[in-house]
Amino acid sequence: MFILESIVNFLNSILWGKNILVVLLIFSGVFFTVKTNFVQLRFLKHMVKLLTDKSNSDSENLSPFQAFCISTATRVGAGNLAGVVSAISIGGAGSIFWMWVVAFLGSATAFVETTLAMIFREKDKTGHFYGGPCFFLKNGLGKKSWGVAFVITGIICWAGVLQVVSNSVTESFNVAFNISPMVISALLTLLAAIVIFGKTDKTAKVLDKVVPIMAVMYLVIVFFIIIKNFALLPQVFSQIFSEAFGIRQGVGGTIGAIIMQGVKRGLFSNEAGTGSAPCAAASATVSHPVQQGLIQSLGVFVDTFIICTATALVMLLTKASVIDGLNGMELLQKSFNYHLGSTFGEIFVAIILFLFCFSTLLGICFYGKVNIKFLTDKEFGQILFKIFALSMIFIGGIQQNFFMWNLADLGLALMTIINLSGVFPLSKFAFDSLKDYQSRFNPIKA
């Protein structure tokens, strides 16, 4: 185990520590933003309109909204809570600014990778669509081995994420209700099993109800906190912008840590460029590939600019002495306790974290289903992955393992590199598809 941890830490020290991923993601975002002529801004209004379009739905595949909910479920999860907490704990308030930058640029990357997933997806004998990086690497570049590598790195990442997310829930319930992690972990595993096992996978139907409810519930409470502390907002935003460029730190090299934390946790949260969200998006029924690309671009905005920012503001509006020296979910719970009172604050965080994390767990299980389908059509492969996923959920819930954060980071980095190795050479197909969509539908004026 020590040797494995050493290898993982060594690779992370290169990929993340040397800012290789930071440079790659920012370059990708800038490149795709320019090449699409700022598609994430020009089509923002149209994205919202597409989200509610039901004209293309069918009984065999997901609706655009269901695909959005599945990908949003994994984005709007632990990354928005634990990830933001981690970013601020290590990189300070300034890391939030870099999360915004990554989200803005990443929304263009999300558009391109999703559009490619739609173009190169496959339909099985039952009429279901399957797509994602492994499919466009095989069908677009003829690199099936790269597709297999993506699946393997995805499983490595998701193994870490499943454990981290599960542990966040059990830790929160233990603090709020003094319930044993074993009990909550077993309950979480059982609920996930009920949804993903059975004659039909109920993931999409559950998430298109849970995701809107949990998002609205969370934002209503945060909005109340913001209104209550409205006079402090200018000071908070001043802190974010000043610390983003190391102005208040005065220590050489600090700005590098700030940027890295913002980019790393921003990516962990919004997933743009990793290739995971297209796995769900490609299962949707739409009349044009670009439509689902635009919807996934919107998902990045919702994740970071709305949910992540809401979490950050709650923490930054909390008196420093209340959370000084704290980290992890305890920091977040103390922040909500400060604003809402200890009883309601702890209960609210526990419930919202349960919803956020449960939806993330289901979303990851759906991603796994698509990627296992790439490896084998046999049902046995699906069953094995579901058992694996449930095992990770249970194990993660009963014990905290910081190594799993590092494993998730490594898997995420490798997924991103493999995904973008296909996205760049195939991006012309997405650009041409965007031109075709604009000429046929004139969406900006629609």
From TrEMBL:
<keyword id="KW-1003">Cell membrane</keyword>
<feature type="transmembrane region" description="Helical">
    <location>
        <begin position="177"/>
        <end position="198"/>
    </location>
</feature>
<feature type="transmembrane region" description="Helical">
    <location>
        <begin position="343"/>
        <end position="368"/>
    </location>
</feature>
<dbReference type="InterPro" id="IPR001463">
    <property type="entry name" value="Na/Ala_symport"/>
</dbReference>
<dbReference type="GO" id="GO:0005283">
    <property type="term" value="F:amino acid:sodium symporter activity"/>
</dbReference>
<feature type="transmembrane region" description="Helical">
    <location>
        <begin position="20"/>
        <end position="44"/>
    </location>
</feature>
<keyword id="KW-0472">Membrane</keyword>
<protein>
    <recommendedName>
        <fullName>Amino acid carrier protein</fullName>
    </recommendedName>
</protein>
<keyword id="KW-1133">Transmembrane helix</keyword>
<dbReference type="GO" id="GO:0005886">
    <property type="term" value="C:plasma membrane"/>
</dbReference>
<keyword id="KW-0813">Transport</keyword>
<comment type="similarity">
    <text>Belongs to the alanine or glycine:cation symporter (AGCS) (TC 2.A.25) family.</text>
</comment>
<dbReference type="Pfam" id="PF01235">
    <property type="entry name" value="Na_Ala_symp"/>
</dbReference>
<feature type="transmembrane region" description="Helical">
    <location>
        <begin position="380"/>
        <end position="398"/>
    </location>
</feature>
<feature type="transmembrane region" description="Helical">
    <location>
        <begin position="210"/>
        <end position="233"/>
    </location>
</feature>
<feature type="transmembrane region" description="Helical">
    <location>
        <begin position="410"/>
        <end position="431"/>
    </location>
</feature>
<keyword id="KW-0812">Transmembrane</keyword>
<feature type="transmembrane region" description="Helical">
    <location>
        <begin position="146"/>
        <end position="165"/>
    </location>
</feature>
<feature type="transmembrane region" description="Helical">
    <location>
        <begin position="300"/>
        <end position="323"/>
    </location>
</feature>
<keyword id="KW-0769">Symport</keyword>
